[in-house]
Amino acid sequence: MIMRISSFCAVIAAVGVLLAGGASLSEELITLRNGLSIDQEAAAPPLPKVENHDKRRVRNFAEQPPTIPHTIRGYEVTRNANKCLSCHSRIQTGESQAPMVSVTHFMDRDNQVLATVSPRRYFCNQCHVVQEDVKPLVNNDFVDVELMLRNSEAPQ
């Protein structure tokens, strides 16, 4: 109990020092409100542009679900309808030239092959996402394992 009170007092003292120094909390601390007071509401950020070029992207790991290379705004994916399957179902790929959904989508949880897409794989957006033309939030120095292996085997 004594430790909790002393920690609380230390926090109060630190806030007091900040305020006494003439700095306001909104100027010194970065918050989710970006310096707005509690009675103000920030404007919503603009919606990013969805990449829409129908090019398949390289996957970063073996079981990565492929990303969606086109816009899906307005696509209905509900219990009763799935717009994605109008192009990606087995019988539509000849006409649409879209890749067929993976054979794994036709298996139930016991790996029994079904005639249609399994209900557990029916809601595409659980795994597949569109790509947006945005600046990354954090730097990424990811290196694919195959590239790492190739570089380590190369003569030095």
User: Sheet bearing the most strands, described?
Assistant: none
Roughly how many Å apart are the termini?
62 Å
Number of helices: 5
Could you name the CATH class of the largest domain? Answer: Mainly Alpha
Q: Give the low-confidence spans.
A: none
Cα-based radius of gyration, to the nearest Å: 26 Å
Subcellular location: Periplasm
Family: Belongs to the NapB family.
Protein name: Periplasmic nitrate reductase, electron transfer subunit
InterPro entries: Multihaem_cyt_sf, NapB
Provide key terms for this protein.
mainly alpha, 2 domains, 5 helices, 156 residues, Flavocytochrome C3, Chain A, domain 2
Description:
With 156 residues, the protein is an all-alpha fold. The protein folds into two domains: 1-34, no CATH class; 47-135, Orthogonal Bundle (Flavocytochrome C3, Chain A, domain 2), CATH 1.10.1130.10. Helices cover 26% and strands 0% of the residues. It starts with a helix and ends with a helix. The model has no long low-confidence stretch (mean pLDDT 83).
Q: Secondary-structure blueprint of this entry?
A:
Layout: H1 2-20, H2 25-28, H3 85-88, H4 93-96, H5 145-153
Care to give the gist of this entry?
Helix content is 26%, strand content 0%. It has 5 helices and no strands. The mean pLDDT is 83.
